[in-house]
Specification:
140 residues, two-stranded antiparallel sheet, 12% helix
Amino acid sequence: MPTSRLTTRAAVAGAALAGTALAGTALVLGLLTAPAASAVPAARAEATRTAASDTYTVTARTTTYVYAGPSLSYPRRGSLRVGQSYRADCWGMSDVVAGNGQSSGVWIHVLGDQDVGPGFVNVVFLQGDDHAGLPASAGC
């Protein structure tokens, strides 16, 4: 398992509280940290399970950054490109982010590829339901 992967929702939330918010980063990205999560429409496509493993395929809804942890305050590890698919293994709850007309505190752990290191992406930037198609059992 990658060292950045958090094993419980409490650890995800605790790590987010330990970091400091970078308001400048949020403004540059055009994102706002919202005070509460709202429902994400379930009409988006489901993630596809990868054979013989506990990984899933998620697709970027828009070009977005991948962060070392589940918050905008963590360092960036690269960018996901709109329409491209990436491997992911779990989801967790942390800082609420607004984007694409939605807000959510759900962060998906992507495994990265040759261009992007492993890290976290908020679900509002991915296709799929309110967990980007990952099942409830795939919590970090």
